[in-house]
Amino acid sequence: MKRKLFLGLFMLIIGNFLYAQEVAFEEYDLDNGLHVILHQDNGAPVVTTAVMYLVGSKDEDPEKTGFAHFFEHLLFEGTKNIERGQWDQIVASSGGSGNANTFLDRTYYYETFPSNSLETGLWLESERLMHPIIGQVGVDTQKEVVQEERRLRTDNSPYGAIFEQLLKNLYSEHPYRWGVIGSLDHLASATLDDFKNFNKTFYVPNNAVLVVAGDIDSEKTKKMIQDYFGPIPKGADIKRNKVIEKPITTTIQASYNDPNIQIPAILLAYRTPGQAERDAHVINMISTYLSDGESSKLYKKLVDDKKMALQIFSVPISAVDYSSYVVGALPVGENSIQDLKKEIDEEILKIQMDLISERDYQKLQNKFENNFVNANSSIQGIANSLADNYMLKNDTNLINTEIDIYRSITREEIREVAKKYLKVNQRVELEYLPEQKDAN
Q: Which part of the chain is the Peptidase M16 N-terminal domain (predicted)?
């Protein structure tokens, strides 16, 4: 039995070692400023084509919010060479799948195909960049889509407005202060020229990175990339104003009434450094230790042991200029959100005053090792990591070295960073409450 257990552990270690091998890649720029990253892995006949644009809700006019997310939808409408409504059919008929997502700093489009459809993926993404149709029919259609998405995910979903409420209280000047989905009133009042100008400004090759990962021949792929993307004109330089938020020095008390909930929640939000900073990596470890998953300190204490909370959760907000650590809880029984806040603060104080145990520290290291391996265990995951590390962290090779940052973080560093950022007077306390019913 012991021999079988040893062999099983040995094979698991070897398997993780194999999957965690260094990700080889090549990167270069086209004359029009498009940054290209290639990762050749001929182990399976699959390829991902992905383009990340450095445009998110941060880049919007405060009076015209929601544009970045809107374009995530609009740029599937069609191009001069792709009829309206045909995009998804082309992807599916080639045996592929694809999607897009938008956040505070970037918008990301990707497709995964059998490798013999690589050229289709490159053609699609070059069409999106070179020949988009920004027309009234598509704009009107996608306005309805976004309105329905907001109703479904935010307005009519339990706890759906948490993200918006956190951001509006964490920031007073920075454009992170509005939600990614933006204002429906702003979208409704926007003109067709507003949308055309947004596209002309941000959807240009010198504001993008193209990643091709998987079963490719690098030299043949380079030629196809040049053929499809080389002729696209370079855009004008984008002027961005860096907004610096004043530090939070007094606890910000906030509340919000959600008509879709019956159980209140307490959320404590701390503004933390941008995601490329070393301290942001330490905060990630603190978040995992305190509130990420059923093995975290707060879950075990408040849900399992004391049975005071129905749920403990973290809302990760990692971004370029600032990130945040957010911990929240829902009470159960006669316990109040104030009771939960007191218990959470006790655990935060412990991590500020004492070193976490060697056992807990090793569990953290193991979890981050596992997360690192899993993130790069698929071609699609590798493509996303390459784009993200280049565009948002200015170091593509973090796909291989970021785990070394986590390995080097000490217990002493965890304690000092908790002291530095997790102060009561440097946070937002959001009471997320059921809507009061009219007594009449």
A: 36-176
